[in-house]
Amino acid sequence: MFGISFLYPLFLIGALAVAIPIALHLFRRRTEKVVEFPAVRLLHKAPVQQQRRRRLRELILLALRVTALALLALAFARPYFSGRVSALPLPTTVVALDTSLSLSAPGQFALAQQAARKVVDTTPATHNIALVTFADTATLMVAPTTDRGGVRAAIDKAAPGSGGTRFRTALARAADATSAGGGRIVVVTDLQQAGWEASDEGAVPDGISVEVVEVAPPSGNLAVTAAHRDGQAIVAALHNFGQRPARVPVRLRVDGRVIATQQAEVAPQADAEVRITAAMPPRGGASIEIDDADGYKGDNARYLVLDPPGAIPITVVTSEAPSSSNAGLYIERALSVAGDGRAFTVSVLDGHAFSALTPQQFGPPGALIVLGTNTLDRDGRDRIASYLRDGGRVLLTLGPDIDVETLAGVVGGHPGVDPKVLDTAGKSVTLVAVDGRHPIFRPFLSPTGALGDVHVDQYRRLNDQDGRTVLARFSGAGSALTEQPVGKGRLLVFASDLDNKWNRFPLNPAFVPFAIETARYLTQGRERPQAFTLPDVPVGVATEPGIYSTGAAGTAGSGGRLVAVNPDVKESNPARTSVEEFTGSIARLNQVAAGRVAAEARAQEEQQRLWQIGLAVMFLALAGEGLIGRKAL
Predict the structure, then answer these.
(1) Which of 237, 345, 415, 449 could staple 311 via S-S, CB 3.0–4.6 A?
(2) Domain locations in the chain as residue ranges
């Protein structure tokens, strides 16, 4: 039944304060004084207050004061009407059904479904039933219900996928499905050992029992664990997890068509490498496939992309339009030869064009190279500063096209640059690497790649700053190339220019390796991967093995960059743990039920807010007390 409850019942002790006005009322009761009148005629003119009316007024004042104090204590105690029924809620049995790749062997998942249906049939009638399926993630397929038929139907519809096993995730989701009445979790699984090796989190509250129904793993499993392209050949790795040698045909399928087949022999508990040579297109998707009659079906194919690695976009910002000058020309041509022309995609834009880019057009790129800022407007400067602050990488040159006055807005802080242009006055000033082991200067360790032939005519002085590291110097002068963190990003500053104006560096043979290695250093970690392992896939790509386009959530050919999605090779290992080890690995939570009840109580109290009504009535009582008390004076 519905009843009154309190969120903070200790505040009810404050209701004892009602004794104060009661005590004052009892101790301050007045009695009428006896007045002796010298003349009877005066008696008719004396005002006589009715005793009964005065006592009634005092009782009303007392009641109002007591009510105000009691309501104040009740308001602090936060009352609410509890919606709980007196009968305890039904306990819940949650069936956690493993649908990972390791249940995909022939006939294996049918046994798991049979075991899950048996759990439903043997669950006491006093229990609700819920169904959770799990692999990389856990999903509540059927909420707690008394409809056994609905749970059986959901079990029949379940199917194994290609995801890995995550026991902690499954147990945490199953625990959430249990009611306040407690219950049990029954895990139907093959007890794969890899299920506990994942870095997921999850625990089961005390009072909820966990039972395990084991489904036997296959006697062995043969899996394709790796594949990559090597010219006109595909090199694949096979692993035999069984105790008997395996001989299987290995098929190479390109864009849906088998173009080559080769036999492979794999020893027990061993790896084997297969090299298949065939006439393959320069681009597209491919897969290496095998037939495994006894093992898991989800790892019988490995997918790979034949396309060359995706080029990393780099944006070069200049002051003048590329069509009207040589601004950015030397950097663009130097980067165009990296990786046989496939390493970078270079876009050269003047300040006006860069500032007008939409967020979608901007990218953002793998790196920015800023050669000029004179034509950047406020939006363009803010874009570069935000890009740096959010983790971007920028190479800033300090040539004649740099507006030093607005440079703070470009880099998002004080640049530490002397605006005065220094002239070497005919002296031989060259570049000297501070640390030849730095990635940018590795090509110059040999004499043929030395920087000593790079002569500089003009440059700007870079002041020392906290966090600024000097990578190269001008011989006999100041810093030439520095690096420093800006927000989450990195900023490289070259104290001269790279447009053949203040030096002849762009015409020197050292310029091309310098530009390429600087770009590689800036874009390190920004490469676009072509292969992904479940469950980590790009946005819009299905969480199933195959070849996909990042342009749409469809298969290859729908436009966009091709990517290959494969299952985790850990899931191919049928090694199992024991029931005792499984239950011993479960993390337990204390007093979760009490916390859940407290949260429900706070939610009910927040919805009702009876304390506000109590305070309103209290103010009315105080107002009435003041009004009646004033009349009594």
Answers:
(1) 345
(2) 3-82+610-632, 92-217+576-590, 222-308+531-572, 312-522
